[in-house]
Amino acid sequence: MSIQRLAVLGSTGSIGVSTLDVVARHPERYEVFGLTAQRRIDELLAQCVQFRPRIAVVPGDEQAARLRDGLAAHGLRTEVAVGPAALAELAEHPEVDSVMAAIVGAAGLAPCLAAARAGKRLLLANKEALVVGGAFFMDAVREGGATLLPIDSEHSAIFQCLPEDRSAWAHRIDHIVLTASGGPFRTRDPESLHGVTPDEAVAHPNWVMGRKISVDSATMMNKALEVIEAHWLFSLPPERIRVVIHPQSIIHSMVVCRDASVLAQLGTPDMKVPIAYGLSFPERIASGASSLDFLALKSLTFEEADRQRFPGLFLAYDALAAPEGSSAVLNAANEEAVAAFLDGTIRFTAIHTVNARTVDALAGRIGRIAALDDLMALDERARRQARELIAELAL
Questions:
Q1: With left for phi above 0 and alpha for psi between -120 and 50, is residue 5 left, alpha or beta?
Q2: What CA–CA distance (Å, rounded) separates 295 from 247?
Q3: What are the φ/ψ torsions at residue 280 (nearest 5 degrees)?
Q4: 171: left (phi over 0), alpha (psi -120 to 50) or beta
Q5: Would the pTM count as exceeding 0.90?
Q6: CA 160/CA 246 separation, integer angstroms
Q7: Which is it for strands 4-9 and 98-101: parallel, antiparallel or unpaired?
Q8: CA–CA distance from 72 to each of 51, 156, 249 (Å)?
Q9: CA 119 to centroid of chain Cα atoms
Q10: Taking the CA atoms of the chain, what radius of gyration do you get in angstroms?
Q11: CB 256, CB 176: distance < 8 Å
C-alpha cells in the first residue's frame, strides 16, 4: 500500500484538526505534505512539530517570520510560503495526492480550483467552492479528472448511501433529504430572535464548530448553502432536494430511492467519520469516533423547517432559480452579514435582511461568468452591496 501525501488547507480549524487526528491514527497510510493557517500560528507550529510537513503556508510576512522562528527553534526545515498564490501552488503540487479543502469562505475557491485542475483527490469541506463556483467549479473537476469527495456530514451521508458507480445515481434517486439539527433556536419564539447575542448563536447543541459556521447553523443558512452544494454534487434539481429538522443529529441525511426505499447514514455527531471516509474511499478506516449505542438512543424525531424562524433556508431555492452567480452573491452577503453580527454591528435578524436584499439588488446585474476573475469580481460587488446595507442596519 502506497502512502498518500496530504495537504490540509485550513489545518488549525475544526475540520483540519479532526483530519490530522485521523491521519495520526494511520501513519502507515498518510504523510502530511503541507499545512496552512490564517491566524493561529502557534497551533500551526505545534502541528508542524508533530507532522513535519514539507511546506506550511501563512497569509503574510509577519506570520511567516513568527513561524520560521518557531520552526528554527525546533530544528525543523519546513518551507514557509506566503499568500494566496502559495495556497494554490500547494494544492496543485505534483507531490500532493490528496487535498483537504477546509478553508472557510470564498477564500478557499482558488486553491480548490487549482487542486481540481491538477486532478487531485479533493476532499471538499469548503462548501463555498461549489456555492460560489457552481458549474465553473464542476467543469474544472471534470476537465482535471479530479476525484471529488464531500466532507460535509450531510453530503458525505448521501454519498455513502449511493453506489460507487456515479452513472447509476440518476436511476436510483427519487430525491434526497438533508437533515438539520435546528441549531440553538429551534424552539425559541421567532419574535425574540432580534435580541440574540453572538455567544448564544455560536452555542450549538450538537456540534463543535467555528464561530461563522455556528452562526450559519443558528440561521440555517448553512443548510441553504448545503442545498446549493447538493444540487451540484449530485446533479439534482432543487425540487428533489429536501430539508428536515432532526434535532438528535444521528441520521446525517437520506436518499429516497425510485422504489420508495430510504437509505440513511447514521452515526455520532463527529466530523472524524466523514473525514475518515473521504481519506480512505472506497475503503473504510478507524476514525476515532465513538460508535452508536442503539440501546442508549432516545427517540429520533423530525420536524418541518419553519419559514418564520429560518427564512434563510429558503434563499437557497430562490438563488438556484435566479441567474447563474446568484448563489455566489448570497454567499458573499452572508459572510459579510455574519461577520458584522459577530462584531456587534447588526442584530441577528438583520443577517437575513442583508442576504435577501443583496441578492435582490444584484439579481439583474450579474453578467457572464467565464473565469475565476469573473467570480471574484462578482464576490466583491456583492460584498460592497452587503456592506452598504449593513451600514444602514447598524445598531
A1: beta
A2: 18
A3: -105, -10
A4: alpha
A5: yes
A6: 19
A7: parallel
A8: 15, 39, 44
A9: 20
A10: 20
A11: yes
Rounded CA separation 337/95 (Å): 39
173 residue type, one letter: I
> Partners of 303 in the beta sheet?
245
Coil, helix or strand for 261? coil
**Closest to 57 measured CA to CA, from 24, 83, 18:** 83
Torsion angle of the four alpha carbons 18, 53, 132, 339, in this order, in degrees rounded to the nearest 10: 70
Asked whether the beta carbons of 169 and 162 are under 8 A apart, the reply is yes
Of 224, 196, 194, residue with least CA distance to 349? 194
| 33-86 pLDDT, tens digit each | 999 999 999 999 999 999 999 999 999 999 999 999 999 999 999 999 999 999
- Round to whole Å and give the CA distance between 49 and 68: 12
CA dihedral 148, 149, 151, 157 (to 10 degrees): 130
* CB within 8 Å of 257: residues ≥ 6 apart: 172, 173, 174, 263
Q: Which of 10, 50, 45, 46 is nearest to 32 (CA)?
A: 50
- Give the DSSP per-residue string, 147-164: EEEE-SHHHHHHHHTS-S
Nine-digit cell at 231? Answer: 444540487
Cell numbers for 109, please give them: 475557491
- Residue for cell digits 480512505? 280
Whether 85 and 111 have beta carbons less than 8 Å apart is answered as no
How far is 10 from 127, CA to CA, in rounded Å? Answer: 13
- For residues 97 and 69, is the Cβ–Cβ distance under 8 A? no
Phi, psi for 266 (deg, rounded to 5): -115, 155
Q: How many residues does the chain have?
A: 395
Task: Tell me the CA end-to-end span of the chain in Å, nearest whole number.
Answer: 58
State whether residue 89 is helix, strand or coil: helix
Helix/strand/coil for 363: coil
Q: Please identify which residue in the block is written with the cell numbers 455560536.
A: 202
What are the tens digits of pLDDT across the range 165-218?
Answer: 888 898 899 999 999 999 899 999 999 999 999 999 998 777 667 788 899 999
Q: Which helix (H) or strand (E) holds 35?
A: strand 30-36
